[in-house]
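Each field is listed here:
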Amino acid sequence: MGGPTERSLPRLRKVVITGISGRLGRIVARRLHHELDWQIVGLDRRPMPGRPKDIEHHQVDLRSKKARDIFRVGDVDALIHLGVMHDPRARPAELYSWNIAGTTKLLEYCQAYRVPKVVLLSSANVYGPRPDNPQFLTEDAPLLASQRFPQIRDLVEIDHLVSTFLWRAQNVETVILRPVHIVGPIHNAPSNYLRIERPPVLLGFDPMVQLIHYQDIADSIVAALNPGRRGIYNIVGPGEVPLSAILTELGREPVPIPHPFAKPLLSLAFKLGISSFPVAELDFIRYVCMVDGRRATAELGFRARYSLRDTIHAVDEPA
């Protein structure tokens, strides 16, 4: 007798990953594909050089008919939405259209074609760094970041969109992950800042900061895919530490700037291209925004694996 026919083989679980071409998208795809045997379908406007042949990649706009057609087949088991654009040099209208319209379309596809699991990678930054923040914010805290930080408006709105979907679409297991500052050989605001040899700091301010290793974020996304997981979760790393201690550990030489002069000086440096630090990020090196991660530990079983020292030094890993 021959072996099992192709018809009798069990179907692999299929996950659609937006933003798959980025470093984090590739790590999540590799983890799910090689370790957990998921079928991977990637959506990204960017190419994906070096892609394994058995991973699908569609270089499409999330708002397009081509993106919808991927869901129309009806066999998608999960969506992981990593494709939120964070480009401080992009036009606000372009960012808003891509982020808000794109996310809205994805949620429509998931509901129309009965996708049972949706995972959004949001950020703890949606709570906003504020002088009156409590020591640790829980998932029930209001999302106030856009009041002082207009550039994060899109992320706050996306978080609200998916939160509404979570309560409205009861037949979908929706998970929103709000991680603290993700660091590693990736291009995001905290990692870029910590790679600056002489980073700006605000004279008289040294906030406590929470970091998480980029590989730990991949772990949290995998945990969110487990059946029965549903809700909003703060994702924290190995602990809290003053910003000054992080810079000392990395051997950086901070440049103290009096607060009244910081905004015009850094704005000019950013416009001239001699600084990669967006002025909108100033409050993150001024005020505290720390979160409580106990719900993720209790319900997702997530706990960061990397030590604080390894997490800090992840920014200097080769890309």
User: Anything to note?
Assistant: The first strand starts at residue 14 and ends at 18. The two ends are 50 Å apart (CA to CA). DSSP finds eleven helices and twelve strands in the chain. The chain has a mean pLDDT of 90.
